């Protein structure tokens, strides 16, 4: 991409401002804040609602009663194949993985984890490493429980491991790290084998250090190709730290968000500990929904076929976003962006000091985008330069218009900021 000189930037700003005046007339009212599947995607899973007939009902009496608190065996097998773990290393929960993450963190605070000397809340401070940009709801969990967040930068291969290793080796109050290992939210990073092995084997001052491994996008490819990834649980076992990782996942973006199935996977010793605590809290999760999901998704191959249908709907939307950025942004200092192979987001890094202004200007023109700063703990991005684009929910024509507004605003604000700094 070119680097424009001062005169070129000034004339581009004029063109951009005149385009913006036209876009103002659109009277847009579009919400692109969250990564929600579109109705067309939701419809793919409609059969879930009708797949329990008389015969299935009669054949599975235990599923429609209390009991089997850790989930039905068929669901364990399905999720084990998805997460590349053993089926006895799976706990099948309720409708949300985020709920399981919050719950696990709360249990760690209140009771400690399997290898803790005491509950985390009895420590003077509890800290978590948050790779940035990252997922706002992970940060919200830490914030609501008073867990201090320390940022490290993401790279295309996962968190900056030199920084992570240096931090956890020295500071025993760092109890864990958030990870989204595949098509991470928002930058689409795929953790490399080296990253996974370093996380599994690194020396940690806290002996009960935990990797909260949110594998929300394990099968969410855009290009039709499932990517195998080194198993974090195996890596932890091989490194002699079998209880270090707790894996979370759900079918929220496979079937119905908010009405899917959430799971935890961990070493048996860790799971035993957590299941004992859960036993005081619940007699049974929603096994009917687990059964429906098993009947619908059947096995790993059928699940992948289903995800190919999802990808066929999603990929053209990602292409609209990427094409719009590519055809509008005229200087690499204005913005760079991720080009993900899967997941739900595109991460845009703008010229520093622009993200909030871009969000505000988009809102003025009727386009709501994810709040600037939300990819950082406490909404505090010191460079104010990162925005998350969520293209999944909008229809084609809304998305084209939304991106027209977004890229034009991005260009305007960034050039203005650049010119200000030049003078
Ligand atoms: N983790 C990540 C990384 C996500 O992006 C999302 C949804 N946007 C979730 C978890 C939420 O999952 P659930 O619906 O299972 O709570």
From TrEMBL:
This is Aminotransferase/MSMEI_6121. InterPro entries: AspAT_Ic, PyrdxlP-dep_Trfase, PyrdxlP-dep_Trfase_major, PyrdxlP-dep_Trfase_small. Keywords: Aminotransferase, Transferase. GO terms for molecular function: L-aspartate:2-oxoglutarate aminotransferase activity. The lineage of its organism: Bacteria, Bacillati, Bacillota, Bacilli, Bacillales. It comes from the Bacteria. It holds the Pfam family Asp_aminotransf. CDD domains: AAT_like.
